[in-house]
Amino acid sequence: MAFSYLFKHLKYVIVVLSVFCTLTMEAQTDEDAFFIRSVYDQALSHGQAYPWLYHLTTDIGGRLAGSPQAAAAVEYTRQMLDTMGLDTVYLQACEVPRWVRGNPEVVRVAQSAMGSFDLKATALGNSVGTGPDGIAAEIVEVKSFDELDALGARGSVKGKIVFFNREMDPNQINTFAAYGGAVDQRVYGASKAAKHGALAVLVRSMTNRRDDIPHTGSTVYEDGVKQIPAVAISTNDSDKLSRLLKMQAVRVYIQTNCAMLTPVTSYNVIGEIRGSEYPDELILVGGHLDSWDTGQGAHDDGSGCVQSMDVLFLLKSLGYKPKRTIRCVLFMNEENGLAGGKAYWAASNAASEYHMAAIESDRGGFTPQGFSADGHADVLQAKYRQLTTWLPLLEPYGLHFSTGGSGADISGLKDQKGLLLGFVPDSQRYFDFHHTHTDRIEAVNRRELQLGSAAMASLVYLLDKYGLE
Amino acid sequence: MAFSYLFKHLKYVIVVLSVFCTLTMEAQTDEDAFFIRSVYDQALSHGQAYPWLYHLTTDIGGRLAGSPQAAAAVEYTRQMLDTMGLDTVYLQACEVPRWVRGNPEVVRVAQSAMGSFDLKATALGNSVGTGPDGIAAEIVEVKSFDELDALGARGSVKGKIVFFNREMDPNQINTFAAYGGAVDQRVYGASKAAKHGALAVLVRSMTNRRDDIPHTGSTVYEDGVKQIPAVAISTNDSDKLSRLLKMQAVRVYIQTNCAMLTPVTSYNVIGEIRGSEYPDELILVGGHLDSWDTGQGAHDDGSGCVQSMDVLFLLKSLGYKPKRTIRCVLFMNEENGLAGGKAYWAASNAASEYHMAAIESDRGGFTPQGFSADGHADVLQAKYRQLTTWLPLLEPYGLHFSTGGSGADISGLKDQKGLLLGFVPDSQRYFDFHHTHTDRIEAVNRRELQLGSAAMASLVYLLDKYGLE
Asked: Which residue is closest to B208 within chain A, CA to CA?
């Protein structure tokens, strides 16, 4: 009877059920909107990202992998995570290269139609030194590897210093796209030029600005190719040198005093809140703790580290008990080796961990615009669709989703078939400061930084509450 | 026969017609996307906004209405518009107040448990002076007009200096909303306090930052109420004074040396491209040329002026021939009287002009987020709907629409029943600089400024091409 009654009145049951579901869903959405609002309130009024960043930048400073400052940053962030009452805080060892800049580099035009002048220069990370005598040779300017190869084939590169001078495209709206279109010169230029017999390379700084600030960043030497010195020069000096080359042959003197010392042990810093229902489903938030030596590593990537720590702080301080494990990872050596990332992936994959989601913040502490999603081809589309169902909760805070890259430190987790996410802030100012002495706390706006913590914590909350299939 | 044949084959006709329509629409959309892309390329590579702003801020400086700098700015921008080959460039006279700050203001705690100290202070615009002897009296702190009235009713305000110390709400995501929630203290505080017999007012600076920078801005005296001096003090000093008041009664000495002189004639600067098909349908772009005297008026509102000029430059330099009349208006005296706006509305309404759309840029030269739409209640909804049909063309540039305020200088055009739009950039940093000596060219990022020109020009193009019903 119960069955036949049910069947007879099925349409009413369906109506009642759907009303119930709608009400439940609305209640859920209201609850979610309320919680996210409280995350933002907490971040803007009581977030810890800014004071942590202040210490990391001002009291510790630039944190090149293997440096005393990097060790201090490991210990400081470990202690800060320790104050939060997390379930676990630990260090994960990794072996990092120990590159040192040595005395300031010199790039000098000794005599020319524009007189004698020093160019604003900074040796690229991992570059070899010239030795105390330096190198003096004629400059040859190129805009691309094709041009280099054509000149090289004619023997016009041998014994010269190659000057890579292709600009970042100013018309790209997203400055990271412009960076991606020019950074091959910095990363691979030295070995490409060395194959043609070049003695050293100068590289136009990676920025859209015209200014006097040289931008460092890693160069990668190809195995089996002679390692030659690689130096970045400011965009103003790049333009000046290029103008001069249109007037006459130019000889340049370069001195770099860098050295690659013996690798040392350093650490990723990890803290986590263990999930109550699905502890084996991991949600990672992270940034990289190392930075270049020239500035304070404020935007790159002190911001990403303190925002990731703040995600745990905000959720803890709001009394949120996650179902899934939320893990903050501060990676070491992203800038010149990725040793921390590699150690983390190896350990995670060996332990058959499942990162349901991983969010890296490594694009600066600017006003949030959303998240960029990446993942294994088998799962990306479906998981991305799930993500977009949360848009109504996040759009009021100016957050949107796109597909694209995530972050270097989490890229090796792709085979776990979770969702990899890059936090996307406004990109316009990032390359004003990137890898320079101006990447300091003064370049970071407190509210913009706090809004990033809140954006990440809000997404972590939704990922934790609803999961990803 | 033709008819019956047509009828018989109507379904094919419909198919053919809809294919045709779809192709035409797609062709249009492609053409629009292509043109908008070219607007952005032009703005980012060849836009004039930044060099114009550089001159306006660095060579001319702060441009308080009635000042020599304001006159220089009128002449400079007129000349720049004149170089563009527009159809008309002219000045529109308006009578502006001539307020002068005089010697630097002093706000001093002569003796207290925290010693003797000067507070970082700036007289509010339009404030009267104290006279050379200044005013010394006891401070009474309030957070609201209700609190003031309650104290006043008990006779506790008479003979005192009222200290308005309500903070801007840090939890508002949009900083303009936080400003709106606190600025009544600055605008109306002096007259409200005077009614209770206060001798002067101190007002907490309108910013979310904690720093040592006082923010000026207009105070408005109520007719028939005694005019008393009004001074802003920095947020750090507001906090300090408030702490001190919890410990003891505090006497403060205030000296302001301001004066309101005889009004003078100044001008709005106007340039336009006359429409080829509907010259009487106006599309206005504008900002205000005057600024406070303390800084260079870079974000407020040099940015809005040069972006509006750049809209004409970009469209002209791309060879675009508008159907409708595109008019750039640089308004005078927005900051302390709105005389330019009022003169413009009066002339426009008297001439029965129709502003189909008006866009004001007066929220700083930061990364664009979209436009806020306002208008007469009869037309707003329908016109807003039309606007949103262009979203697919603008969202790739991070632009969205909302309803809300437009701009003070165009608000008086509402009865013409066009659409009033406020350009909306990222608001996080605006009140770091607003009405202070730090609102200088160094605070403006070239690319962010250029993207604003491009956003406005793109919307003007769509408004011109498709119109608004």
From this structure: A447
pLDDT tens figures, B90-114: 999 999 999 999 999 999 998 899 9
Mean pLDDT of B40-50: 98
ipTM value, please give it. Answer: 0.91
Among B257, B276, B306, residue at a domain's last position? B257
**Nearest CB partner across the interface for A428, out of B175, B397, B447:** B447
H or E segment and range at residue B316: helix B303-317
Give the domain CATH number at B314. 3.40.630.10
How does strand A135-142 pair with strand A161-164?
A: parallel
B236 CA: distance to closest CA in chain A (Å):
16
Tell me: do B193 and B49 sit in the same domain: no
Which residue on chain B is closest to A429 by alpha carbon?
Answer: B445
Residue B43 is inside which H or E element, if any? helix B10-46
Question: Do residues B335 and B305 both lie within one domain?
Answer: yes
CB distance A447–B428 less than 8 Å?
yes
- Judging by DSSP bridges, how do beta strands B368-375 and B400-403 pair with one another? parallel
A6 falls in which pLDDT band (50, 70, 90)? very low
For residue A11, is it within any domain?
no
Looking at A216, A233, A259, which one is the last position of a domain? A259
Residues of A in Cβ contact (< 8 Å) with B170: 44-45, 447
* One-letter amino acid for residue B456 of the chain: M
Residue A274 is assigned to a structural domain of this protein: yes
Q: Which residue of A has its CA nearest to B446?
A: A209
Q: What's the mean pLDDT in B412-426? A: 98
Determine the pLDDT at residue A432. Answer: 98
Local structure of residue B443 (DSSP, 8 states): G
CATH, residue B179: 3.50.30.30
B454: closest CA of chain A, how far (Å):
11
Residues of chain B with a CB closer than 8 angstroms to some CB in chain A:
40-41, 44-45, 170-171, 173, 175, 208-209, 367, 369, 396-398, 426, 428-429, 432, 445-448, 451
Partners of B428 on chain A (C-beta within 8 Å) are 367, 445, 447-448, 451
A220 domain-assigned: yes
Residues of A in contact with B171 (CB under 8 A): 40-41, 44-45
Q: Which residue among B173, B398, B448 places its CB closest to the CB of A40?
A: B173
Question: Residue A29: pLDDT band by 50, 70, 90 thresholds?
Answer: confident
Domain that holds residue B355: 36-99+262-466
- Are B40 and A447 a contacting pair at CB < 8 A? no
Q: Across the interface, do A171 and B398 touch by the CB < 8 Å criterion?
A: no
As a whole number, mean pLDDT of residues B414-426 equals 98
In this predicted model, what pLDDT tens digit does every residue of B342-367 receive, in sequence order? 999 999 999 999 999 999 999 999 99
